[in-house]
Amino acid sequence: MALIETLDTGFGAWNPLLWLVALVVALLIAWLIRSRGESARPSGAESAKPYLSGNDAPSAEETHVGASNLYWGFTDALKGYYDRVVPIHSGILTDYVLWFIGVLALVIIMAGVL
Amino acid sequence: MFGDIPFIAAGILIVIGIVTIVTRHNLIKMVMGLAVVEAGVNLMLVATGYRDGGVAPIFTNAPSTDMVLPTVQAMTLTNIVIGIATTALLLSFVMIIYRKYGSADVRDMRRLKG
Amino acid sequence: MIWEFWSANAPALLLAIPMLGAFATPLIGRMGKTPRNLWILLITALTFVTSAVLAVEVYTTGPVIYTFGAAASSAALVSDSGGIPVRIIFNVDAMSAFMALFASFVGMVAAVFSFPSGKMESGRDGYFALLLLLLVGILGMVCTGDLFNFFVFLEINSLAGAALVAYRIDKGVAVEAALKYAFLSTLAGLLVLYAVALLYGQYDSLNIAVIAERMQFGFLDKVALALLLTGLAMKAGAVPMHFWTPDTYSMAPSAITAFLVVASQASLYGVFRVAFTLYGLTLNYVTIGWFIIILGVLSMFVGVSMAIPQKDVKRLMAYHAVSQTGYMLLGVGVGLAVLGDPVMLESFGLTAMEGGIFHIVNHAMYKGLLFLTAGAIFYQTGTRNLNKLGGLGHSMKWTMLFFVIGALAIAGIPPFNGFASKLMIYESVFAFNPLLSIIAMVVSILTLASFVKVFHAIFMGPRQERYAEVKEVPVPMLAAMGILALLTVLMGIFPQQIVDLVISPAAGALVDQGSYIASVMGGL
């Protein structure tokens, strides 16, 4: 396949064609699994209703796992890092200017002026 | 030595402006600090084109050919115009902030943070 | 006849067309909404075609010199000028043409996305005029060969960008973001101008090529270098000067955010142009190269780690923009650190630079796409809070598809475009310093993790009652997202062609300082 060329990365190579084939195969398998499912859900009052341990399921808004519920463990494990980094983003313009001036001073030193 | 005074003055103006920006908390004063920095840069630009006893660079009926450099003067004019635009924009922002937040203190302007 | 005039004056028309368009927009806006939208579409499309014409010329015949006000625009030097270019010169080499090409493209997409205005019809004419002015600023920055001219376009860029950020006042919060952006940009701009004055005072010229040829790298040049690099890196949003980025990107209208990404990249271009072309081998390239690499690594890590706990979808994406900028700084920084060593430059330096430059355009595509999907969601639901969204996959299927494409591309999942450029960066940086490469990969994984969270929070789950009314967004918005998604996929499937065609000439143009100088100084 000359059209889809291998990407030369200097040390290795990568050909998107393989991945395209893999993607198509994966989608095909997904479609196969899906097509084996029950096509029509029984439509009726009682049997179509979702239950949670015999009780009425709470509304969709309440059951949705929101963003702040995810990665709670990650941020908690890195608490020491986040407790330092988040306060730096103070939102105060003065701090922003001070960081800028500080980096400027650092570069002046690094560039070999002093 | 005396020839360097405009350059030193320009540097002092810039430092005064930056110190104003980082030490004052009133947004209007911070914008004024920025205007002082701009004045310093303008002085620096004009000073590079100055020569002792030079005349305005207009060749018609010129009393002498010792002329100051027109390029930097054109640059300064451009920067003055740009400076007016930025200062006006910044001050109008400060005005809206004061109306909506009820304060022109930089420490109160931190609803975006973290 | 017209065609010849057009291609001969492409660099000037590239700025003249959007500038004319910007100032005529309020007039045409009086005729109604549809004529104005057609006008904007025409202007942005013409600008894009002009940049394409220019790019074809640059890539086939070499750098294009355009001297303003000269009898023959291609002659940089006049015979009686003493070997100094006296006029403002646009010096469009492969790198400039590449930046201009995709900048004008993203500008067109951002304009199309803005056509359905929803409830906010007031002040739309000014909005589009400023959008075109922002385009002028970006195109001017990347095409000019004159330092003072560069400063002027930088200021146009900053002012138009800040005014657009404040467009939706939003109880003053958007104005707060705009004030921070405008204040820092102005300060950085003034310091850049101070550096320009220092260079002009020493070398009697504003032309980049002339200064590069005469560069001594004395005391004042070092000060100027520090001022230029820091100011432009701040505008590009490198950590630890990135604090304005999440504020500004999250409060600007989404189409503008997608375009502000490109505006930041124009500053990034400025960093590279200063380091490679203006100073080149005279600066202590190992130190400055490592400085850029450290900025890049910090940006990558701090950006992505700050993104993970965010609750505002656009703020989260803004932190990812900071993180992705780190990849470009890393790739090109490695190239700069080995600039003086031809063997190392040949074996991995150039590939790292190609990866970094390829990432610039990839980032503009997928990050623009992601910001546009965030805008589409905000357009329909009125909220950006991830904790309040959910179940939108049922009603906004196309937006979901585009979001998935953008998210996979930014996380570097094959076969999307983000993977191709990241792979080039990983492998070449690994040869330079394995640790940097490992950090880059970890950051990619964290990026994927954080976009899984966003995807789940917005699209997954059963249909929710509070969003029962939500439909798919209007066609122009879908078209704008669709074309970016298509390009994201295509650039991932045909990476080698793009690298060969566009990217490696751009990397070569950055490295080859001599031919940049010769293109101006050689043509007497």
Describe the structure in your own words.
The complex is a heterotrimer of chains A (114), B (114) and C (524). Chain A has five helices and four strands; from the N terminus they run E-E-H-E-E-H-H-H-H. Chain A is mainly alpha-helical and 114 residues long. Chain A has two domains: 1-36; 70-114, no CATH class. Chain A has a two-stranded antiparallel ribbon. In chain A, strands 3-4 form a two-stranded antiparallel sheet. Chain B is mainly alpha-helical and 114 residues long. Chain B has helices at residues 5-23, 27-48, 70-101. Chain B has one domain (2-49, 67-105): Helix Hairpins (Orthogonal Bundle). In chain B, 64% of the residues lie in helices and 0% in strands. By secondary structure, chain C is mainly alpha-helical. Chain C has a domain at 284-493. Chain C has 20 helices and two strands. Chain C has a two-stranded antiparallel sheet with strand order 1-2. The radius of gyration of chain C is 22 Å and the shape is globular. The two termini of chain C are 28 Å apart. The interface between A and C is large, with 51 and 72 residues.
How would you briefly describe this protein structure?
In chain A, strands 1-2 form a two-stranded antiparallel ribbon. Chain A has a two-stranded antiparallel ribbon with strand order 3-4. Chain A has helices at residues 16-35, 60-63, 72-77, 79-88, 93-110, and strands at 7-8, 13-14, 51-52, 55-56.
Tags for this entry?
heterotrimer; A: 114 residues; mainly alpha; two-stranded antiparallel ribbon; 5 helices; flat; C: 524 residues; 2 strands; 75% helix; globular
